[in-house]
Amino acid sequence: MDESLWEIIEKGGFAMWVILACSVLALAVALERAFALYAFLDRARSLSETVTRCLRRGAVAEARAACERSRSPLADVFLAGFERDGRGSKEALDGAVDRARLRMTLELKNRLWILGTIGATAPFVGLYGTVVGIMAAFHDLSAKGTGGFSVVSRGISEALVATAAGILVAVEAVVIYNFFNQRFARLALELKMLCDEFVEALREKGSEDGTRQTTGG
To answer: In whole angstroms, what is the distance from residue 72 CA to residue 194 CA?
Structure first.
C-alpha cells in the first residue's frame, strides 16, 4: 500500500478529521497529566518526612514553614491541617485534612474525562463516516445505473477506513485512560497514608504540648 497518510485521511472524509483531532487531543491530555505527575510522589514523600520530623521534635513553626516553601500540592493539605489544629475536635482536624486531600485527588484526575469520552465516541464517529461513505457510493451506483458492485466496492473500502481509524483511536484513548486511572488509584492510597501520618504527628505534638503545660503547672 503506497498511499500516504494524507491520502488515507482524505478518503475517510470529514469523520477522519474529527478522529484525527480526537487522537491529538488524547495524546495532549496524556502528556499534560504525565507532566503533572512528574516527581509528584517524590516531592510529597520528601515534604511528609520533613514535616513529620519537625512535628515529632515540637518544631511546629518550622514544619509549617516547610509547607509554605514546598512546591508539592500536598503542602496545601498539610496547611489545612495546621489551620484547623487547636481550633476544634480531633474529628474536625481529620475532616479538614480529608477534604483538602480529596480536592487534591480530584485535581489530579482533571481532564481524564476527555479520554473516557474519546474512547466511547471515536468508534461511532468512524462508523458515521463509513455510513456516509457507503451512502455516497450507492448514490454513485444509482446515478450511473451500470457497473454493479465494482462501481461501489472502491467507495465502500475507502469508507471503511473511517471505522478502522475510529476503533484505533478509541483503543489509544482507553489504554491511556486505564493507565492513568490505575496510577491515580495507587497515588491516592499513598497520599492517604501520608496524610494519616501527618495527622498522627500533629496530634502527638498536641498531646506532648498539653503534657508539658500540665507538668509545668
So the answer is: 13
Is 19:126 a contact under the CB 8 Å cutoff? yes
Cell of 51: 514535616
- CA 94 to chain centroid: 26
**How confident is the model over 152-186, as pLDDT tens digits?**
666 677 778 888 899 999 999 999 999 999 999 99
Q: Please give the residue that has the higher pLDDT: either 9 or 133.
A: 133
Task: Report the C-alpha gap between 21 and 16 in whole angstroms.
Answer: 9
Task: Give the whole-angstrom CA distance, residue 214 versus residue 151.
Answer: 96
What CA–CA distance (Å, rounded) separates 155 from 143? 14
Could you say which DSSP state residue 13 is in? -
DSSP state of 147: S
| Domain segments of the chain as ranges | 5-204
Question: Could you tell me if 5 and 112 are in contact, meaning their C-beta atoms sit under 8 angstroms apart?
Answer: no
Q: What sign has the CA pseudo-torsion 40, 46, 48, 54?
A: negative
